[in-house]
Structures are given as structure tokens and as C-alpha cells.
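Moderator note: this is an archived Q&A kept for reference. The question asked for a predicted structure of one protein chain; the sequence and the answer are reproduced below.
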Amino acid sequence: MKYKVANLKKLHKEGRWDIDYHLPAEGIKKFDDNILKPISDAASIVKDKRDPTKKPDEQFTYVDISCVDVTTGVITTPQELTGSEAPSRARKVINAYDLIISTCRPTRGAIAVIPEQYHNQICSTGFSVIRPKQGINPFYLHFAIRMESTLEQLRKFSTGSSYPAILDSDVEKTLIPLPDKETQDLIASHVLDSLKVRQDAIQLANTMFSENTSVVIDSLKGQKYKSLTSTFDEHIYKSDDIYNRLNELSADEELKK
């Protein structure tokens, strides 16, 4: 059974009585204490706001939580809106190389660096916006905040069951490994290079799929199928095989009765 002896005044001050909140995070224990720093040492909370509805005809780029690819932490599908179309949550101003951190369900990893083309645009109030301090690499900071050891802390700080959420103050006190500037730059370069390799591989796979689909369509049009090959053997795909397999599955179900 987990337990922890805590000061009553501290419990009242924190407003949290659940033991998980007060127990130390496990993930950060693998890092040397000398490089563990709160995010507030690396970045400042940005609270700048702008109401796009005051200029109903002016176009702007809007980034909400659904725009962030949670696998890579990259903004993929921002919306182009006019002020008259702005949702009520479109209020926070973002600048290039700011970081946005989803405050709702933060463990999903909807955390991104703002690219230059979205400088001085608008994001949802559902994000905590932080601005790296001088000497802090935003891409390293992005990597560090998306690490499991960081997300674990954000989970512990979250309140609410259906939609667990954190505050700006929770982001500030979260611990991350913060090495020297040269090491940050080196790690950022390595991570960005890996991301590019991933993106290139996906692009190549999409291109090959599109080309192969075109071959199939052309074959159907001309009823010429010699250009099609049959090398796939990692799954049941032939009509007869599927029919036989369905019979086997039905037989298995009968035996279980």
C-alpha cells in the first residue's frame, strides 16, 4: 500500500489530497539531479491574447488541439478563418518558436513548436503557451516535454476524471533534464533529422501506394492484368482462402458451445 507523511498546511495549500499527486514521479529518477530543472527555468508562460472577432473580415491561422499530430508533435492541419468565423476559444497569440502544450489530456502529447509561417497567429485557449528563454533550444525543449518522464508528471498534476486538465502553474513546476546549450543543439539536430527521415519514408510509401493504385485502375479500364503482381503473403487475401477460413472460424465457435 502506498503512503506518504505530509504536512497538513501543505495539503491545504496544494488543494490535493490524492496520494499519487504527492508521491515523487518515477520516470525522472533515471536522470542526474544536476540536470533536472523546472520548465520555468527554460521558458516563460505567455498570456498574450487577441480577439479576432473584432476584425471580422481579417483572415488568420487558427491552431486548436486537433491540429497537432500527437505521434510527432507537429502542427499538420491548422485552419484558415476570418474573424467572423473565430470560435470563442481562439484567443491566444502565438509567435514563431513558441511551444504550445495541450492543457486538456496533456498525456496525449499534443505539444508542438510553432513554425515561422504561423508567427503572430492564434491558438486555442486550451493550450498553455510557453516561450523559450535565451539560450534554450525550442526543439530540444519540445523533445524534453514530450518524454514519458515529463508526461508522467503532467498526469500526476491533472485534475478531473472525464477531461483531466492541468494549469500553467503545473507546466512551470514540471521537471525536465536541461543540459547545456551545445548538448541541447546536438539533441535537437538528431531528433529533427530522425523526424525528416520518418516524413520522407511516409511520403515515399504514400507515393508508391498511389502509383500502384493507378496501375490497378488502369488495368481495370483496359482489362489487362499482366502488369499486376501477386507477391503478398502476410495475410489471408484470396477469395477461396477467406471463404475456407470463415468456415473454420464458425466450426471453432460451434465447438466452444
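Archived answer notes: The longest strand covers residues 127-132.
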